[in-house]
Design a protein that fits this description.
mainly alpha; Dna Ligase, domain 1; 3 domains; two-stranded antiparallel ribbon; two-stranded antiparallel sheet; 13 helices; elongated
Length: 344
């Protein structure tokens, strides 16, 4: 019996070696692919994002990630991951958040689900409509479609033509995405105020000297500007309600200041209190013609549920709070003490 040729003995070993090397390469590749898909992208800046425009190819998306050094993963790995997740060709356009710690798998999942970055815009209780417009003008990634429009045109755009804008927008935090406009936020804030008033008005205290929800809105705006303390809103509303009931002048400085407009320089003088404007509640009786600010829900609730009592006056203490009085004599003493620092 003759021995097998040497090459016949070597071939199986070579094939085995090739198979082992291929298996090792596959194992390494699979391990490296899993490492890639679970390793966070190179995001170091909070608030970073990637904007995918409509019609962008998968190749261009991966290219941008690599160009910005957010990913060192090969385009092949990205393609394999997308195929594995069954999202290739199903990624939505939009702006996506790139938070520190986000992985390629999570980013593709967000893009496939259309979980675009939602930004927040807060309307602050007590802002005037002018201040609201100024803040909107500075909001990032928001289309400023209303920037060139006057107030009347803005109200027309949101479906509230003919309404005075002051006070008509509910202070809350509103989410928006890239592509939304300032008009969108204003429309939503206006609708929120309409709904809030409609919900609160039917449950108001009986026999209030307020005949319409709009009058409640005006009173709430005065309460909003007079105090930021939750424990005082209903008490201050009570003072103004009793003054209305007794046909007394409201004599509220914030309304006078609002009527002064740009001429207000940070100080209210005695001459300002005697100069008549539609908002001077020292020279005109009743409520001013419009709200003087954007009141929040707590101020609305205070206006519709004022605290009972006999106080008709209040004066600032200087620490954010107020001292209340039921008589003019007592009020004058409080003014001497807390405003003129002549306490007896």
């Amino acid at each position: 019996m003759r021995d097998k040729p040497a090459h016949g003995r070597v071939m199986p070993k070579v094939l085995l070696l090739i198979v082992l090397l291929a298996a090792a390469a596959l194992a390494y590749g699979w391990h490296d692919f899993n490492r890639f898909s679970a390793t966070p992208l190179n995001v170091t800046t909070q608030g970073d994002s990637i904007d995918i425009s409509r019609g962008s190819s998968f190749k261009s998306i991966v290219g941008e990630l690599r160009q910005r050094n957010l990913s060192t993963g090969s385009p092949l790995y990205w393609r394999l991951l997308a195929e594995q997740m069954r999202v290739a060709g199903k990624l939505h356009a939009g702006e996506y958040a790139l938070e520190p710690g986000i992985t390629p798998r999570r980013l593709l999942a967000n893009m496939a689900a259309g979980k675009v970055l939602r930004r927040l815009f807060t309307i602050v209780d007590g802002w005037t409509f002018a201040e609201l417009r100024q803040a909107l003008a500075k909001a990032e990634k928001l289309n400023h479609d209303g920037a060139a429009l006057d107030d009347a045109a803005i109200m027309q755009k949101i479906g509230a033509g003919g309404e005075a804008p002051e006070g008509r927008f509910l202070p809350e935090t509103y989410a928006y995405v890239k592509g939304d406009s300032d008009i969108d936020i204003l429309r939503r804030a206006h609708e929120s105020m309409v709904k809030a008033l409609a919900a609160l008005w039917p449950g108001r205290e009986k026999n209030l000297p307020l005949t319409t929800p709009y009058e409640a809105l005006i009173l709430a705006s005065i309460v909003e500007k007079e105090t930021g303390r939750p424990d005082e809103r209903a008490r201050i509303a009570g003072v103004f309600v009793r003054r209305l009931e007794n046909h007394m002048l409201l004599q509220t400085d914030p309304s006078v200041i609002y009527g002064m407009g740009a001429s207000y320089a940070g100080n209210i003088r005695k001459s300002d209190l005697t100069t008549d404007t539609p908002y001077n509640t020292y020279t005109r009786s009743g409520l001013p013609p419009t709200p003087i600010a954007l009141p929040g829900k707590p101020a609305l609730e205070a206006a519709l549920h004022p605290a009972a009592g006999d106080a008709l006056y209040f004066v600032a203490r200087g620490d954010g709070g107020h001292v209340f009085a039921s008589s003019l004599e007592q009020h004058n003493r409080n003014v001497d003490c807390y405003q003129r620092k002549r306490c007896q």
